[in-house]
Design a protein that fits this description.
Phenylacetate-CoA oxygenase subunit PaaI, single chain, PaaC, PaaA_PaaC, 0% strand, 63% helix, mainly alpha, Ferritin, 274 residues, disordered N terminus
Length: 274
């Protein structure tokens, strides 16, 4: 049996001087940073849960055009969720195999659709915030997060515009549509303070230039919301006792019911493939 070829001396010397790992063995910057993972989960969870909520309208919206619009917004949000959760780990595992207490989305996105007015009120309040956040997050020092935000902000600009148009149409429409929109806004209003909550994890990322301090654009947000409500001839809802805790895994019963539907197939058939 022939022997292995002789190792030349110059090859042996080069091997000794080479680093003890390959070029692809080093971890991507921030990939295993718990704070960055937590932040990406927050962003991904917000988008995924709202996308799932909007998908519930498929085939039930008041008009075919609206049905298509809501379906497209849902697909945009699920795409954003895939990207952000992919930065946090395995997107499929995070989406379909986490229990309710492990989710970090805000309370606003998990709220039930209610009627069409409540759905658009929720979309308007969230998309306005999300658009302002992504616009600033495109300048993140984490290039991966910045790239996802820069792409997503173009999609969210449409979500914001569409929702604002419906708030105005319903608010400045009939007495019935105005009442329903006012009730939808009132239902969602208690969840706004959580969007601007600044905890220790977020503050540390803000200091590193990775995350955006939401309190830095809260005034702009309130003004933008007020301008649309004025055009819709709707009064700004009174401030309510804030509902907080979604970022720490404290959620309403609505999220558990949503996940039971969303996660049913992969949990029931864990080995299934498309």
């Amino acid at each position: 049996m022939p022997s292995l070829p002789t190792i030349e001396k110059d090859v042996e010397q080069r091997a000794k001087s080479a680093p003890d790992h390959g070029a692809f063995d080093s971890a991507t910057a921030g990939q295993h940073d718990p704070a960055v993972v937590d932040y990406c989960q927050r962003l991904g969870d917000d988008a995924l849960i709202l996308g799932q909520r909007l998908s519930e309208w498929c085939g039930h919206a008041p008009a075919l055009e609206v049905d298509l619009s809501l379906a497209n917004i849902a697909l945009d949000l699920i795409g954003q969720a895939t990207n952000f959760l992919g930065l946090a780990g395995n997107a499929n595992e995070l989406a379909f195999h986490r229990d309710v207490l492990d989710w970090k989305n805000c309370w606003l996105v998990e709220q039930p659709n209610g009627d069409f007015a409540q759905t658009m009120a929720r979309q308007f309040l969230f998309s306005t915030w999300q658009h302002m956040l992504y616009d600033r997050l495109a300048g993140s020092s984490d290039q991966r997060i910045a790239a996802v935000a820069a792409k997503a902000v173009k999609e969210v600009a449409y979500h914001r515009e569409l929702a604002a148009d419906w708030v105005i149409r319903l608010g400045d429409g009939t007495d019935e549509s105005a009442r329903r929109m006012a009730e939808g806004l009132d239902w969602c209003w208690r969840f706004l303070p959580e969007l601007f909550e600044l905890d220790e994890t977020l503050q540390a990322l803000v200091d590193r230039g990775i995350a955006v301090n939401p309190q830095s654009f809260e005034d702009d947000y309130r003004q933008a919301i007020g301008a649309v409500l004025a055009e819709a001839k709707l009064a700004t809802p009174p401030e309510q006792r804030p509902i907080l805790g979604g970022r720490r895994g404290h959620h309403s019963e609505h999220l558990g019911h949503l996940l039971a539907v969303m996660q049913y197939l992969p949990r029931t058939y864990p080995d299934a493939v498309w």
